[in-house]
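Example record

The entry below shows one chain as it appears in the dataset: sequence first, then structure tokens.
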Amino acid sequence: MQALDDFTEHWRDQPSFLVDYSGNSTFLAKVEYHSEQIHHRHSTVVRIRKQGKDLGQISLQKAPALLPGFPQLLFSPPLHAYDYDRANHALLVQGHSNLLGGDYQVVITPA
């Protein structure tokens, strides 16, 4: 997953961006949710799994509830697509939710 590799490579030397022996990352992040119905941002702890059965999984520790079942706190392929924004060094997660009225994007940037 090139987007996860590029994102981790850019941030891995930052003191608050922790990478374990397996390549999994844990860090405090600013998270923004964007859809036609919702624009929301908050800070939380993010974990990216780069090894094992949960390869490519992105999990957010917690977030304020806006709607039942939202915000999404767990992302994984193939349900979600990942991209790396080189200009802002952000991880982008694209998904679809009827609750949000269709397509949404989550922008994750270390705090």
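Notes for this example: The first helix runs from residue 2 to 11. The CA atoms of residues 21 and 51 lie 10 Å apart.
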